Amino acid sequence: MLGYNYIKFDSMNHVILFKKGKVKKEGRGLSFFYYNPVSSIVSIPIGSKDLQFVFKESTKDYQEVTVQGQVTFKVVEPQKLADCLDFTVDSKGRYLKDDHEKIQQRISNEVQTASSSIIQKMNLRESLRNLKEVEEYIFQNVQKSKAVLMLGIEITSVNVLGVTPNPEMSRALEAQTRESLQKEADQAIYERRNFAVEQERVIKESELNTEIAVEQKQKQIAEKQMETEVVKQNNEQELKEMEVKASISLEEKKQKLIALKVENQKKEADAKEYMLTASLKPYKELDWKTLMAINSRGVNAKDNIALAFRELAENADKIGSINISPELLNSIIGTKNS
């Protein structure tokens, strides 16, 4: 009414109200009345935005690849952006120009410049494998870009989703990779078989070592048993020798004892002989007739007749003849028989 309008912005817009070329209001999420003929409003979105990109680049070995990714950015200095681009809106909040689209174009140009620079330093295989390196390089270079800094924009992240070759090269790489994988699979099978053979050899060797160890233990046991048997036999031999020595010693002692007994008996016999000789010595010089006469029992008639016959026998060469009557003999014999 009469040129006065009311406008309202949300909290994700930084609003600047110019009146007669001077800043009258500035801030986020403002709402106010303004006089349209002398006022202009700038609305700068400050929320983060994602920018998708797809570029075709050439590697160091002249192979074409496609770089695909996403850049996330946000406005951190709205005044700088307002000085570079026109974000003026009408009474309904619609932009009068399309300068807001130029932000994405300028960021996209910086991203393409950075990606081209890093891809051209790599060959095809390196570019396909080193996505993280490509991502880091693009992020650092775009973040430090003068064009981006001049706009008051901050690059919050860069994500490289993929680097892909053209279809023909992709098929060739797939075939080569397939062959390589097949070789690796064959190598893995070979290594697995070789490992199995090696493990079997190790097991056999372990079994042989175990058998050798068992044989050695058995040998040691046998040797120990032989040593024990030898010691036992030696002990038995020593025991027998001790028994023999003891028997010899006993026999020697017995021999000494017998010799001593014989010696004692001999001495005893000598003593008896001496006593007997000494007792008979007085009778040695006597005549037997005298001895008969001194017999304590005396001499009877029969003894005298026997002595007479003895003397006759001794002097038989001096006797011419002798007559002995039968009566005398019978009397003598009869007397003895009686």
Automatic annotation (TrEMBL):
<feature type="coiled-coil region">
    <location>
        <begin position="205"/>
        <end position="270"/>
    </location>
</feature>
<dbReference type="Pfam" id="PF01145">
    <property type="entry name" value="Band_7"/>
</dbReference>
<dbReference type="InterPro" id="IPR036013">
    <property type="entry name" value="Band_7/SPFH_dom_sf"/>
</dbReference>
<dbReference type="GO" id="GO:0006508">
    <property type="term" value="P:proteolysis"/>
</dbReference>
<dbReference type="InterPro" id="IPR001107">
    <property type="entry name" value="Band_7"/>
</dbReference>
<dbReference type="GO" id="GO:0008233">
    <property type="term" value="F:peptidase activity"/>
</dbReference>
<dbReference type="GO" id="GO:0016020">
    <property type="term" value="C:membrane"/>
</dbReference>
<keyword id="KW-0378">Hydrolase</keyword>
<feature type="domain" description="Band 7">
    <location>
        <begin position="16"/>
        <end position="193"/>
    </location>
</feature>
<protein>
    <submittedName>
        <fullName>Regulator of protease activity HflC, stomatin/prohibitin superfamily</fullName>
    </submittedName>
</protein>
<keyword id="KW-0175">Coiled coil</keyword>
<keyword id="KW-0645">Protease</keyword>
